[in-house]
Structures are given as C-alpha cells and as structure tokens.
Fold these 4 entries.
Entry 1:
Amino acid sequence: MNRSVVVPALALLLASTSWGCSPHVEVGTSLLWFAQHETGDFTEWTAGSKGGYSADTPDTSVVISTQLAHSGTHSVQLANAAPTSYETARLWREDAFPPEAYYSAWFYLPRVYETSQDWTIMQFQVPPTGDGGSSGLLIDVDLRSLASGDMILDIYDHRAAYLRSPTAEPALPVPIARWFQIEVFYRNVGDDTGRFTLWLDGQVNYDLHRPFGLSSTTYWSPCSSSEGLTPTQSDLYVDDAAVSFVRVGPTGTL
Amino acid sequence: MTSRGLALGIGLGLLTGLASNPTSAQEPTSTDVARSVMVTGDCPSQEAIWSDIRAIVAPSDLGKVTAARVEVSDLGATYHVRIVGDSGERQRTFRDVGRDCDHRARFAAVFIVVTLLPPDVLLESPPEPPPAPAPRPLPTPAVAVVAVSPAPSSPRTKRLRLELSALFDAAPAVAGSGPSTTLGGELRGLWGARRFVAVAALGFEPRASFDFGGVGVDELRVPFDVGAAWVHAWNRIAFAGEVGLAGAVVRISGTNTAIPSSGTRIDLGGRLGAAVRFGSSSSAVAPVLGIHALIFPKPYQATTTPQGDLGQLPALWLGLTAGVSFAP
C-alpha cells in the first residue's frame, strides 16, 4: 500500500486516540430558567430584572453560603429568627412563564424545628391586581410539625373557596439533614383543567385540580416565612432552582 | 505501415483474390475448426470468424489455419486474439466499445490469416482478379488496437476508478441506541491496477432521525473512509472486498426540545465492505452494487437538560450502495 493511503490512515488513528473527550452531545434544553449559585452571588435570580432576593429586618437574612451545596460549592442560606410576627427571607422570579411549567428547588433543613404556625418555604403569587386590596398571594407550600416530631408539607390556597388542602395520606415526612427536592407542576389556566401537582423527592405529595389563570404572569418564590419556631433561629438552604418545560426530578441535571 | 494498415490491406487483397481461387483441396471439418478456433464469450462468435476466414482464404490453405491454435476472448469493450502456430505465438487485444460483433469477426479473421499465412502464399494470388462483390465494410477506424504484447498478459485495468452511488444506511436498535435509517450518496475512488488497491470515499446523508423516549434527535452525517480493497475480476464481473478506517462528521440536533441545540462531532471506527461491479475491468461505465458495515466503538450520548442522557447514537450501521463505476 502506498503512502497516499498510509498517511491519512495514521492521521485518523491519531485523531481517534485523542478524540472522545466529550462523549455527550447536548441536543437541547427544557429549562426556562435556573440558578445554581456557583457565581457566588444572586445574578441568576436578578437576571433580566425578573427576580431578586429580599429579607425582612431585623430577624431574617438571605446570603450565599458555601457551608452546604446540592451541586457545586454554593447555595443560598435563608435565615429566620422572627419571634412573634411573620418575617420573610426570600428569593423570587416573576415572569410570563408558559401556562404549563415545572418549578423546582432543592432544600436542606439542618435539624428538626417545631412549628407553632405554618412555615412557608415556597410561594406562588400573582401580581397585585391594583384594586387596592389584593396582596397577590395564591398558593403557599408550608412546613408543619406533627406530634411525632416529623415535619410534613402543607398546601394553603389563599382563595376563600379552597384554603388549606387536606393533609396527604399517608403523610410524607420531610427529610432532615439531607437535601430534598420540591417540584411543582403548575398549569396556570382559568378552567377546571388548572392543576397544581407537588412532588417531594420525586413522590407525588399533592395533586390539586382547580382553576388558576388569574394572571399570565407567575411570581414564584422559595422562601422562609415564619414566626415562633422552636428553636427560634432557623436556617433553610436552597440550591439548584429551576423553571422548566419538563420535570427535572430528583435525577435531573441543570 | 502500421499493423492495422497492413491487416486491412492484406485483408482487402485476400477478399478480392484468394476467395475466388477455385481449388479441389478438402476443407477442414467442423471438428477441426472447433478444435482449432476456440472462442470465449459470444462477440465475436466462432461461426462468424470462421465464415470470414473462409471468405478470404482459399480452401487449399484453410488447413494451415486449423493447424494452429486460435483463442478469441470477448472481454466486453475489448476482445483478445491469441494465435499459437508453428512459428510461435502472437496476440492482440482490440478495442471495440460498440461491440460490433461482425466487425470483430472480420478483424479477428484478418489477423489470424495474416499471422498464419506467409506473405509468399499471399503473393501467389492472381494479379488480375475477376470482379468480386463489393466487400463488406471493414472495421472502422474507431476500432483500435489497444495492447500489443508478445508475452501473455491480462487486459490492462485503469488505475483509477470512481464509483458514484446512492447510499442507504440503517442502524439497528442495539446497545441502547435508537433504530434509524438514512439515505444519501457517496463518491468512492479505487486506485491501483493490481489485486490490492487503495480505497477512499466521501458521502453525505442529510438526515437520520432518532426517537429517545419522545425526544427527537436528527443526525446529519458526512461519512468517509480510507482503506484497501482486494479485487478479483472475471470476464464480465469484478468483486471487491474492502476493509478500512471509517469516520463520519456528524451534526446532532434536537428537534422537539423546548430550546433545541446542536453539536458537531466525529465518529471514528472501522468499515467492512463488499462490492460487485458488472462489466469488464476496462469498461468505461459499469453498474456497481455494494454492502458494508460501519462500526463505531465509542458512540456519542445524546443528552438534554434536565433529563440528562437520552440514549446512545448508533455504534453499528449496515448499508447498501448502488451506483455506477467509471474510469475517468
């Protein structure tokens, strides 16, 4: 065989030994937005002026933390020490998200707390209607203590027709001292096909069918809104938050 | 004078002279002819050659023809005449792309007669022949001797052949990859005139589609390969077994993800192939059919966010080619 064949063949062999650094080919994403906090700041939340973070004074704070992280090295610490009246530390995104979308975040509770009132850790709101009275509160996802000492999730719909949803049977205890994922499918339509389905670590915890569609804009907020916890000083960590067209699930990657 | 001119001149002289020379000598029997003039293929036929020899050689001299051994081979666009007589061996390869079998028979007959009948015999023909019927047209100038060699040889093969083919590839659903089929085309070049030749090819397949649990992925492929082929040719058919390194530049795209994206990679692996070409090795254009297998030991994973790995792109492609082979 002559050189005209040997040379290209050797070149190909050489190429084949050095190729293959990336055996994966990304063919698309179903993420509309996500935050992993590896930038060490809140720029993912504030991007496009469609979100932010806030903490009520004097007893709450929201900071980037390197003590714990679900992925990478950074997360957000929501600290709350409100003694007798609700105070809130929150992250939030507000956008004209699609009528059907998934909202997910990973949370970490370093220890068990005892609640005397609902401890809201996720909120769905609609923008104020401008009629002078509406706060825009829609759905709260709350932590609540059981007599057994376990903590479970509750759903509270601020509309008078719905209010608190029955506790899921069997109740799913929230993991302590390990990361857990809360993911919600929110179909924001004004008829009976409206839906609010919540998974805890991939397991359906609540599946509510009711109209929504109060606004095409959705305000979504992982938060720590509480009062009178025992112990009073609480820490809640948040990481790997996303809004997506498909379920992220416990095994999903951002 | 060239050999072709000499042949034509002598042939004409014989046509107008010896054919009409009456004689009482006994002609060779058909058995003698069959034993002496052996024809492979059907263009020209033995009957036509012998008829033309009889037309230009006096019956008394026909025995000199059958005393020799004549082999005529139809090689497609050429034909080969080999004569083994008392004075040695002579052979010619004549080109006739148009395959005019009558012309071939006449030209072979003239060559045989010129070779076996010495000039002095020819000179004995009457100087003033009676009018004869108009001679049949002789081979046109388009017919040319393309090879003259005293030593036995096979017809010369073009060093470079190109094959332009339609390409069909199918990926079976194995090893976690999705099944798919794709159509395209390829240009393949074979370089060399011996049993082993170098092979290189470049193709294009615009779309292979995969479905990974509802997520659609399209692949645009530019396959290529370099290698060697073992070629064996018979009269009207040639077989090539090929082995080589194969690759493909692939552009992989999501089709129904919320926000599609694409990536370009190179698949590297090996190729095994076999092809059959119809027609003689010197045919200007000939149909060709082939089969092949492409093996890529490190196939790529299609991924999307947040689902992660969707599935593996094919490690094995099985394909067919159909096209034309030509010697530029």
Entry 2:
Amino acid sequence: MLTSDQTNAIRDILREHGRLAQDVAALSDQSDLFEAGLTSHASVNLMLALEDHFQIEFRQHGFCRTKWMPSLREALGL
Amino acid sequence: VNLRLWDLDANTYVRHPLHCVDRAWPESNCYVDLWIELLHSAGADPLAAMPFALAVDLEGDQWTFFKFPAADLDVLYGVTVFELNVWRSLAAQVAEQLVLGRPAIVEVDAFYLPDTSGTSYRSQHVKTSIAIQALDSDDRRLGYFHNAGYYELEDEDFAGVFRLEGHLTDPEYLPPYVEVAKLGNRPQLTGRALHEASIALLRSHLARRPFTNPFCSYAERFRSDLEWLVAEPLAYFHNYAFATLRQCGAAFELAGAYLRWLEAGGESGLAPAAESCTRIATAAKTLQFKTASAVNCHKTLDASPMLDDMAKAWDETMTMLVARYGS
C-alpha cells in the first residue's frame, strides 16, 4: 500500500518527467497514461526518475499504462 | 470547402485494437502506426499485412525502420501508394487528392502538431509523417492520423504544417515528401481470400529473412555501442533506442500479434512462435530500460543474458515458421 507521501511523490515525478498533454491532477489512478500523452521516450525518463527517487529498481520491464498507479506500485515493489 | 474521407471526431475516435491494449511497445514508428489507423478507418484489418515485420534485420547502426511494403498493401487491400509530385500549393494538392477519395501522407514538422503537446509541439522541430483525411482550407482546419491516433489542428498550426506564412517561405526550403494512398483502386480482400493472401506474403517475407541471426550480430554490436553510449547524455540514448531496440522490439511484437491473428483465422499451432516473438519484444523493452539506467548512471551493463535470449527466440521463431511456410 502506498502512503500519501509516496503517492504525491509519484504524481510530482509524473508531472515533471511525463510531459503529458494534460494536467496530472486531473488523472485518476486508473487513467490511461498513453491516452494522456505519455510517449515511449517520456516513460523511460519517468521510470528512471522513480528509481532515483525511491532508490529501488523496477522489478519488470515496465508498467501498464492503464491503471498506472497500482501498476507502478507493483513494478517498484512498494 | 470542407473535405473529409470519413466522419471522424478526434475526441471520440476509437483506435485499432493494436493501439488500445497494453503492449510492451505502444508505439513502433510513425509510419507503421499511422498506416494501422488509416487501414482501420478504411475498414481493413492491418494485421493481415504484418508478415514483413518478421524480416527486420540489423542494418549497421540501426534496425530496419520497418514500413508496410506498398506491394503488400496493393495485394491485400487494393491500395496503390504513389509519390505526389509537389509542384504547387501543397494544401491545394492535398485537397485535390481528398476530392478523389485519397488521403495524403505528408512529411511535416511536429512543431505544429498539437497531439505532440509535451514533447515537440511548439518546442522542437522534428520530422514526422501524418495522413491527412480532412481539410477545410477556408477555416484552416485539418484532420490527420499521427502515430497511434487521430487528431485535429487549426489556424496557426495549419499555416505551419503547410508553410503558408511569409516567415516560413524560406527560399532554401524543399518541398516535403508526400505519398498518396489511392484507396479502392481494387476491392479489399476479406475473409478466406485475405487470410490466404496474407499467408502467401508470409512465405515471401520468410524467404527474405536475414541469412544469419540478426540478434547474434546485434549482441556483438551492442557491446561496443554501450562503451561509448554510457558516456553520452540521456537524450542521445533516446535516439539510439528509437533506431535500435524500439524498431526490433515493436516489429516482433507486431509479428506476434500477426501470428495470433493467423491462428484465430484457423492456422493452428502458431502459439509457440507467437510467444517467441513476444519474448523478443519484452526483452527489447527490458534492455531499453536497463541501458537507459546504465547511461543515466554512466555505469556498465551485462546485457548478454537478454541478448542471448532474444537470439534464441529468433531462432525458435524462424525454425518453426520456416518448417511450415518456408520453401
């Protein structure tokens, strides 16, 4: 389970590195990040920034662009 | 005059399933992605034309920038693709083709494409291709396929795409490369006929597969690439990844989807080959991130296990398919 601090940190990192076409605040945890404008290029930068911030490695090759928050939590092992 | 081929709305447009499900590589390259959506909108199934993806190779510093062969589009969908001779106003020429029922595929500057908001839009000049299916010259509005979606633009962006403003008419500016998709030149194949024609293409593309395992060649190349890549900024890595891991990974992901389409159409026993293709796609995605991480931290990386598995999966795929469809 993510703490609210972790959730906020993930959203802040998405805002900074996701280069989305829409405001991160308007996204639900189940939104489709690809539909929101996340490119393959930006997803790599996002994952690197998340690893840096949480000082852990992704367990798998990526995360589901739909249901992105639960998927990131699982991929990061948080 | 408001010209349009299909009554599409960017806000409600439903993408082809290849662009809807969670894939390792949701984007392949702009040309393949826009053709998937163009064929989808024309009522054709783009999966039938995917056999060419199995023949990608390592081409020196890049993997094949894979594109639907025009001949395959002709055979399966009755679409003739030809280069447009741009000799007068591009907007007028695109309009003329739309009147004839044909979308134009135009090289443009993504600086003027609002769907790239957050990346290129109004910030970077990047060459890309769009397929124009709607145009209103009076109101300066455009409907276009780009990457995996359908979008609209207007006003200043319209002027930018067609370079209508004075400041864009640089005398050294060369006209863009433009293709026209002559839809309905002959009827599309459907059902069994489409399936059988697609298998014939599969046979021909298997016959032109790389002579030696390209992932073995790439394993060697990657090791030397990594030596200089880790000293480069991350932005440079992204160019490298697009030219290499994205192309081979996306190609084999589409190839896997193709083999599953064939199986759903009655070709039994293709699941193991499809799974091998997916293994290549997933390993390429993992390797992309591991390499990004190495470049970001300027550290080394032992990619041998991933590259070995990709080479093994390529061998397995080709052995299975050639045994069945090879000559």
Entry 3:
Amino acid sequence: MSKKVLIVDDSLYMRALIKSALEKAGYAIIGEASNGEEALDLAFELQPDIITLDNVLPDMIGLDILKAYKEEGLPSKIIMVSAVAQESAIEEAMNNGASAYIVKPFTPEKLIEEAAKV
Amino acid sequence: METLTKPEIDFAEKLVRKGYLRTANSFSSIVMQPVGITGVTLAQGARLDDIVQLIFKYDEPIILITDIIGDIRGKGYLVLTQEEGRQLYQLCLSAFSTTNSKQLSEESVLKEVDNILSAAMIAEFSDALGLSIFGDVPVLITDVQLAKFDLGSEGWESNSLLTTTSFTFKGLEKLKPLFLWKLNDDFLTQVKKSAALL
C-alpha cells in the first residue's frame, strides 16, 4: 500500500514539484496545505505517513508547526523542505523531531531518497 | 549611525560576493544549467534615488521583494524585465518537467525562485555573522507606483549598504536578472564585530 503524504508549502510551484516527484515514486498525495493553519488541521484530520513541511509560511514558522505536531503526538514522519539553509536552522529542526531536512533547490531523486529513509 | 572602514568594507564585499556565488549555485540547480554573476557592486550610504535608478531603468519591471526577518533588517530585490520573467519561467518549467506545469502561473514560479535565491544569500549572512535571520515570504510587484511607495517608505536616510549583481546564463545573453540588497545599520554593526575578530 502506498504511503500517504501531506505537502505543506505556500508555493504552488513547489507543491507541484514535490507532488510530481513523490507520485512518480509511488506515494499517494492525500492533501496540500499552503499555510500553517491548514497544515495543522489537515495533518490531524488526514493522519499522513509523511509530511513535507516548508519552514517559512505566510502565517507561521515551520518549526512551530513541527513542535505542535510533536506536542500533540502526531505519528507522521516530518521531512522539512525549505530554502532556509543555515546550519543552525537545520540543527534546530532535527532536534525538534524532523526526520530529515532537505534544502531547496533539490533534485527529485534527493526527495525520493529521503522519503524512502523515513 | 555606523560607518565602515576600508578593511570592514573589504570584509563586507567578500561576504556579499560569497553570498552571490552561493545564490548563483542555487539558481543553477533550479534551472539545471550553469549560472554566473557579473558586476558585483557595494556602496555605503545608499540613497533612494540610487535604487530607483537601478530598478526603474525598465519600462515594466517585475520586482520580487524579500524582507529579512530576525536579528537584522534588510531587503532583497530580484528585478527582471517582462521578457526575462517569461524566459525564466520557461526555464524553470522545462528543468523540472512537472506533470501539472500548465497550472503554474508565472508569478508562482518567480516567487519561489526569489524565495530560494534570497534564502541562499541570507544563509550566507547568517552563517558568517552568527545571526538568527531568515527571509519572509516574497512579494511580487509590477505596479511601478506601488514599488516606489514601498521603497520610499523605508529608512533611506540612514547609512544603508547597497549591493548589486546580475546573474548570467550561458547562451542566454539577454537574460540578466538584477539582484540587489539594501542592508541597514544593524547589518553594518555585525560586519564591524565580525571584521574585528579577524
């Protein structure tokens, strides 16, 4: 059975890229969120296996969403997919429960590789 | 108000050059072809007129603006002509060959390109100066009056640092997006601190 994925990114372009790459690799995209509020609602409603999470959204910071997921015990694996490339930001996300951190721009292969690992 | 000495300006110039190279590297990954930079400039005491002249040399510019959020203030501008915007949009779509590319607006693609490029520049500043900063969600402006209002609402009387470069694409001589950053006093303070440690 395909793993279920929720994509969180404010960019339609980026959501399309992630969706295209993961669908080709056999993942089922069950939802897309373009802001933090949707990211929280959809994650708890859909209970995906994997969430790809951007770090800067119009209404929230990805790190705060990540912390909220973990505090509420959401079992989904979180792959941060963000242009924020500072070592400190990557470290903070990993320390707060992210399973992987992919810096934009990325190749489809890199995304598929990380999704397969989590 | 901070004023940089010659060694501090040299430090700042090296820093922004590294940032632009990192950005060009990111750009290259987006469009899947080599991207370079040309004509790096850096000047202290940037005035509103300087930036207006740079941005509004085109009739209908596409201006993507990213605010720095966090320990320091500053703004990045990616400036393209309408034709450059179209070219870049096509390059991005062809590089990734997304299945649903027809639904993607030029604005959506250009904003994400700016988001990635600005983040690379900000990451260089952050790593080099030990700052907690990141880029806000980009804004795209094509209305010249609105863009001038946005620019004019800033603290242009301060001792801002203005730095510019243009990206170059092999075989596409007419595609030369302008990338410029206005960095405020608190950036200069950090440059002074970091340069003093050398």
Entry 4:
Amino acid sequence: VTEDDRPLARVNPDRSVEVWIRGRRVRFPGAGKRPEITDAQEPPADAGPLPGDVLSEVSSAVTIISYDGWLVRAGDEAVQVLRTRARRSPGRVFSRFGRRGG
Amino acid sequence: VAAEEPRPDPGDIGAAIERYRDLAKYLITIFAAVGALLAAGTQLSALGKLSSDHLDRVAATVAGLLLAVGAIVAVIWKALGILKPVELSFDDVADDPVLAEQLDRRTSLLGGAESVGDVRLLLDTAAISEEDRAGWQQVADDIVTHAAFLRMQATFEAAWKPLLLAALCGVVGICAFAWGANPPATAAAPAAVRPAPVSVRVSLTADGRDALGDALGGAACADGPIPALSVGGKEGEPRVVTLPRPGCTPAQFVLVADWGAAAPVDRAPAK
C-alpha cells in the first residue's frame, strides 16, 4: 500500500463528506442517503486525512470506506456500495412440512 | 419476501431437518418390517436339504443372500448419510457455488445484502463498526442454518430413490433366497413290498421233469400237478417253492416256460 492508495477526504459546510479513493470521488450526502460516486483523477488541494467517523481498510487491490451507514468497496475495476447495517426481518425460518396457510 | 420463497413456518429449521431424518427413519422401519416379514417365512432349516441336485436353487440362495445383505448395507449407508449431523460453517456456504446461488435467491435471508459474498465482505472488513458486524453475524448464522436445511433436503432427495431401489433389491434377494433354500420335497421311493406268496400248482413239461426230477426227490415227485407257492420272479418266469410232500424234497426254482407252467389255485392248500 502506497501513500497514493490512502484515501483523502473533505468535510463540506453542508455536512456532506467527500472521499477520494482509487481515482473516484465518493460523496456521502449525509442523513443516511446513498453515496454518490463520480470519476476524479486527483483529490483537491484542500483534501486531508479521513475524519475519525469514516472507517477504512486499504489494501493493494481494494479500498473500503464506510460512513453514515454505507460501505463503499472500490477496486481497480469495480465499485460496490453496501449498507453497513443488516436488516433482519422476522420469520426467516422455512420448512417444507407443516406449512400454515394464509 | 419474494413470491417464490417458502413462507415462514412456525417451526424452526432444526425441526425441519429433523423431519427429514424422521422420514428416513420411517422408511427404514418400513423396509425392516417388510424384510422381517419375508425373512420370517423363510425356512432356514431347509438349507441343509440343498445338494448338487439343486444347482439352480443353490445359486439362487447364494445370489439372494448376497443381494439381500448388499441391499441392507446400502440402506444403512444411505440412511447414515441422512442421519449424521450436518457440519457447515459460513465460509463453507460462501465457498460452495451451488449453495451460495440458492441462498442468493432468498433475499430475505441476506439482511439487505445482495449475495452471500457481500455478507462475507461485510463480516471480514475492518471498515465497519463492531455493532454492525454483530448484526451481520446474526445474518450469517441464519444463512448457515438455512444452508444446513438445504443440504439436508438435497441429501434426502438424492437418497430416497436409491433407498427404495435398495429395499426392492432386498425383497428380491430374500425371495430368491427363500425359493432357493426351500427345495420341494422329493417324491419318496415306494416302500419295498415283498410279493405275497400265491398258492399255485406247477405242471412240468418233460424238459422240466428231466431238469428238476432229482431236486424234487425223484421222477414220481415231478409228475402231476405239484403244490407250490409262487414267491416272486417275473411274469412268465415265476419263482416257486414246492410244498413238502411225503417222499419228496421241497425245492425252490425259477419256472421257465420250457419247464412248465404254474396255475394259481383259489386258496392255499391246507397243511
């Protein structure tokens, strides 16, 4: 992992957070809204280290950051966006027998 | 919950897995009962009656026994595959493409992720909080539990037809064994019955008198009807024993046609 792989971030006045990883800009609008991802070769000059509430994991192949209930996994090719919080709905138990109607 | 997904059941998955196991036990019990019923009708003691005269039955007995034993082994083998515990870890599930694909279709199990692989990513990454990871751990537990059910279902689906086939082979084997081990009783040889003596009178020809005169005690003893008993011989050549007469010697001989003839009398002469 080189210094170039390390994500840089900027906190905007509107409380949104922008993070630059692997040639992409990830903007977390806040309020739990889904992050927006755009191509961006270089971070701006005022970008700095990640805020403490932005978690990250960096390897030579992928960079993962999470913030505001969202996780972004960026590789050289693909970007994946996932929720960090699991939603568990009741009644996930199944059976072939004794199924109740209705 | 997607329409194609099974609906929630008040029972738990452990109970569903146990139902498959119970089903396997019921099948084995039925097979065992049928086998016991068939075996009970087999007279094993008749095995000793088998000999080289019944090569077909000997072959059927051996083949039937082998088939029945082989079927029993096959049934037990398949049943054990269903009854043994299912051991699965989340990594086993995520690394099994067939299982993972089946679970990916059950979106309600995935806690909002799109695939089992995504759940693994969320569990493995250091970029989420411990609280969030604990939530995904519960999702992973649900996935593993359901995967165990799917694996048990697949094991049962793959086992019940071979189980049925093995049971049929067992029945055929027991039937072949029963047929081979019980040869029909051979027709008993008729008891030897000595022919009852028949009272006859022997009339000798000249050749007969010449041949038997000395044996009967002289020429006078060979003349006229000679009282005798027919004690066997063949039709036309009876074996006769002359009865004692004064001055004559009792003799036994086969009365050939050239020597004379024996005519039956109504009743045995009085002593």
